[in-house]
Amino acid sequence: MHFVKMEGCGNDYIYLDGEKEAISNPQALARKISDRHFGVGADGMILICPSDMADCRMEMYNADGSRGSMCGNGVRCVARYLYDYKQIKKQEIAVETDSGIHTVRVLKDSEKGKVSMGRPVILDQSHIISLEGQKLEMMLVSMGNPHAVIFMPPEEGSFKTWDMRRAAVISSHSDFSDGVNVELVQVYSETGMKIRVWERGSKETLSCGSGACAAATAAILDGRTKRKVNVEMLGGMLEVEWKSDGEMYLTGSCHFICEGDYPCILQETGA
Ligand SMILES: N[C@H](CCC[C@H](N)C(=O)O)C(=O)O
After folding, report:
1. Three-class SS state of 23
2. Atom of ligand 1 minimally distant from the CA of 69
3. How many Å separate Cα 184 from the centre of its chain?
4. Residue 183's beta-bridge partner residues?
5. What SS3 state is found at 75?
6. 62 assigned ligand-binding residue
7. How would you classify the pairing of strands 146-151 and 181-189?
8. 3-class DSSP state for residue 167?
9. Whose CA is closest to 93, among 124, 48, 134, 132?
10. Which of 10, 34, 106, 250 could cysteine-pair with 63, CB 3.0–4.6 Å?
11. 34 in ligand 1 pocket by Cβ < 6 Å?
């Protein structure tokens, strides 16, 4: 089975051609191939399949094999895969996902992709849970997948040293029967914020496109930032813009890392 590994702002996935490869159990394959010691290693696996309504359909799996309905970094990488790898030289590539069709504009040198993420849906502007005896307030936002956004106080210091255990506990809190992606956010200016993300099904990732959009939604609604904002994450910077017509756009880099065969050809032939 041939795979390509790509990353969008450090959020890495294994991409497989769902038309060519016969994959009977994608959940189990996602778990094995994503393992960072016993597999190729990634935040998850994305199948690129044919679509009746778009240039392709993307099926996304988290590292634990669970299905994700949207992936802002993944959808940009899928467009780049079609553009550079499959030579589909269209400036705008439409990708069908479980949460609708998203159009990706492949920017000039194709190193960057700008995707229309749709309209954020506010599920609860002030959701309160109790954690270790303390009340914690968060905004619940759907970007086609669920997010809980929590603002961190400015005195919390360097975001590289934030304790992510809180986010892990919230992600599997009983209020969220399907789990939730968690963003810890520190706004530092009207046009900039830092976030760290705990993804349901994949633990902490270096970046999350839909998470950046959810965090921007909460910050904008709260009057903390303007409608165009840079979102700094461990893996780099994404740019989010919430247009006045309600549509949100996400821009960032997407790169090829490597390609290969899984399992290793030697193993398959018994050589
Ligand atoms: N990293 C992805 C989101 C994955 C979300 C997934 N963990 C879920 O179960 O919803 C992104 O760039 O948007």
Report:
1. coil
2. 10
3. 15
4. 149, 197
5. helix
6. yes
7. parallel
8. helix
9. 48
10. 34
11. no
Mean pLDDT by 10 residues, the chain (271 residues): 97 97 95 97 98 98 97 97 93 96 87 94 97 93 98 85 91 96 96 97 98 98 98 97 98 96 78 52
Q: Rounded CA gap, 134 and 62, in Å?
A: 30
- The pair of structure tokens assigned to 265 is 């050809």
Q: What residues contact 121, with CB distance under 8 A and at least 6 apart?
A: 141, 142, 143
Fold of 2-118+254-269: Diaminopimelate Epimerase; Chain A, domain 1 (3.10.310)
Parse the chain into domains and list their residue ranges.
2-118+254-269, 121-246
- Enter the CATH code of domain 121-246: 3.10.310.10
9 is catalytic: no
* Angle formed at CA 202 by CA 93 and CA 39, multiple of 5 degrees: 90
208 an active-site residue? yes
Nearest atom within ligand 1 for CA of residue 210? 13
Amino acid identity, residue 146?
Answer: P
Q: Is the pTM of this model over 0.80?
A: yes
Q: Which amino acid is at 210?
A: S
Nearest in space to 40 (alpha carbons), one of 240, 208, 261, 270? 261
